[in-house]
């Protein structure tokens, strides 16, 4: 029997990819699925075939809540999956008793989402523990929400594959290493502008071709790359090749679908841990993830261990810890490759 299912996943891109196997498993031909995405992850809507995609705010306002209430009334869903644990969602099962609610809940350091009283109205729930080190990652934990009659889609066959735009396919090398630059991250470890080029030039000795992208937001580093590298403006699809470091190409304002496509075909990936980490794991790419956090005491260390276990437990993640010792950082990255 075909089920009518609603998914709440209005959070960030990394969170969406962390739930992607759970979501893909529900997108089979037996289900009529609607998914709510946020202004932060709506750009991933290309992944979802035969799905009704709706956009709603990351932080629900009064009008969002009223809209969702009547949306559920008029659409008569069989099941609703709360994959973004916002408190408002956990009050809905009290009202809609004829709908099976499945929930991703959180055992937090300061508070739980939801309070224990509301959990009893959920048909089924699993809990992410942020007080103790997790035994399995949250992405694998979410698979336990799915009914045993539904096959788990570990390879995400129910999703669309991203398509690379022709202007990129025709102007990028066929073999390349993909690097993500985040100004706020690399600034903390003394690797921006000319200092970042020290790393980039050393990597270019190991890898013939490098494709680099950076923050979507306008930063000083973006301007620096445009001035000093061959680049492609992905916003207006114009090519600016000036024979500057000819084997390094900077991609300015690349969109998510093209970035996902590049992740699929890249030979290696170097990035601060985050969204690209999840993309790399999605395609089982050789990815070096960079971490930089300040540990002042045992409490800070435990917090980082708990966070790592939530996101990456059992994922065979390659990573290194960095500080503001620039030369040591470059040596550690080069040693990995």
Walk me through the structure.
The protein has 337 residues and is an alpha/beta fold. It has two domains: 3-145, Glycogen Phosphorylase B (Rossmann fold); 166-336, 3-Layer(aba) Sandwich (Rossmann fold), CATH 3.40.50.2000. It has helices at residues 13-18, 20-26, 62-75, 92-95, 116-119, 138-142, 166-169, 183-188, 194-206, 220-228, 256-265, 275-282, 298-312, 326-336, and strands at 3-9, 31-37, 52-55, 79-82, 100-107, 112-113, 124-129, 177-180, 210-213, 230-233, 238-240, 248-252, 268-272, 286-291, 318-321. Helix 12 links the parallel strand 13 and strand 14 (286-291). The termini are far apart. The model has no long low-confidence stretch (mean pLDDT 92).
Secondary-structure element series: EHHEEHEHEEHEHHEHHEHEEEHEHEHEH
Q: Count the domains.
A: 2
Query: CATH topology of the largest domain, what is it called?
Result: Rossmann fold
What top-tier CATH class of the largest domain fits best?
Alpha Beta
How would you name the CATH homologous superfamily of the largest domain?
Glycogen Phosphorylase B
Unreliable runs = none
The biggest beta sheet is recorded as: 8 strands, mixed
Mind telling me which CATH architecture of the largest domain this is? 3-Layer(aba) Sandwich
| Alpha-beta content class | alpha/beta
Work out the radius of gyration: 22 Å
**What's the end-to-end separation, in Å?**
51 Å
Shape: globular
The overall pLDDT average reads: 92
Strand content: 15-25%
Tally of individual helices = 14
Question: Which structural traits does this protein have?
Answer:
single chain, 337 residues, Rossmann fold, 2 domains, eight-stranded mixed β-sheet, 14 helices, 15 strands, 34% helix, globular
